[in-house]
Design brief:
The chain is an alpha+beta fold. Helix content is 30%, strand content 33%. It has one domain: 4-Layer Sandwich (Glutamine Phosphoribosylpyrophosphate, subunit 1, domain 1).
Length: 212
C-alpha cells in the first residue's frame, strides 16, 4: 500500500511595487491518480492578506480557518490592523505548536499593511522567511527557474500576474500533479480580487472581487 501523500502541485507568490500576486493551479493528485480538477489552493484571510498553499487540502482549509479566527480576534482586541509580518508569525507559531502532528503544507503569506507589501513563505514546521518571489510544491523547481530569469520588482501587477501564469503553466507541462486551471489572488493598495484562467490557453474564465 502506497504511503505517498498528495502534496504535489505548483504555487507561486510575487511581491511587486504596487501589490502582491498569489497563484496556484487547481489539480489534486494522489500519486498518478487525479482526484479533482477544481481544488482551491489560494485563499483570502481578510481585505489585506492572502494565503496560498501546496499540500493536503484538508490541512490548507484548517489553517485558513485558524489563522482567520486569530487575525480577527487580534484586530478586535487591539482595535488595530494586524501587520502582514505578525500574521505570518502567528501562522508560524500555529505550525510549530503542531510539529508532532504536523500540517502537511507549505504556505505563502502575502499582503499589505502600513509599511507596504510583504511576502513570506513557511514550511510545515513554521520556518519563516521573507521573500520577493517564491515557489512551492512539486513543480516549484521549474516555476522558480522562470521566476528567477524574468522577475523584476519594478514590474506592475498585470505583468506580475502574467509571469505567475507562465511559471505555473511551464511547471504543469512537466509535473503530473499540476494542472487544470490557475487561480490568482491579486492584492493592491485598495482592493483584493480573484481571477481564474484555463491553464493551456491562459484564457480568463472568471474574475470577482474578493470578500471584504
Amino acid at each position: 500500500m502506497s504511503t505517498e501523500l498528495p502534496t504535489g502541485g505548483t504555487t507561486v507568490g510575487l511581491k511587486l511595487g504596487d501589490g502582491i500576486v498569489l497563484a496556484s493551479e487547481k489539480r489534486l493528485a494522489y500519486g498518478y491518480t487525479i482526484l479533482s480538477k477544481s481544488v482551491k489552493k489560494v485563499y483570502q484571510v481578510n481585505e489585506r492578506i492572502g494565503l496560498a498553499f501546496a499540500g493536503l487540502i484538508g490541512d490548507m482549509q484548517a489553517l485558513v480557518k485558524k489563522l482567520s479566527y486569530y487575525v480577527n480576534l487580534y484586530e478586535m482586541e487591539n482595535s488595530s490592523q494586524i501587520s502582514v509580518k505578525s500574521a505570518a508569525k502567528l501562522l508560524s507559531v500555529l505550525l510549530y505548536d503542531s510539529r508532532f502532528t504536523p500540517y502537511f503544507t507549505d504556505t505563502i503569506v502575502g499582503g499589505r499593511d502600513e509599511t507596504g507589501f510583504h511576502l513570506f513563505t513557511l514550511d510545515a514546521l513554521g520556518s519563516l522567511l521573507e521573500e520577493d518571489y517564491v515557489s512551492i510544491g512539486k513543480g516549484a523547481p521549474i516555476a522558480l527557474g522562470i521566476l528567477e530569469s524574468e522577475y523584476n520588482s519594478a514590474m506592475d501587477l498585470k505583468t506580475g500576474a502574467e509571469l505567475a501564469k507562465k511559471s505555473i503553466t511551464q511547471a504543469a507541462m512537466r509535473d503530473i500533479t499540476s494542472g487544470d486551471g490557475i487561480d490568482i489572488l491579486i492584492i493592491d493598495a485598495h482592493s483584493v480580487r480573484f481571477e481564474s484562467y484555463a491553464l493551456r490557453s491562459s484564457t480568463r474564465i472568471g474574475t470577482k472581487a474578493a470578500d471584504s
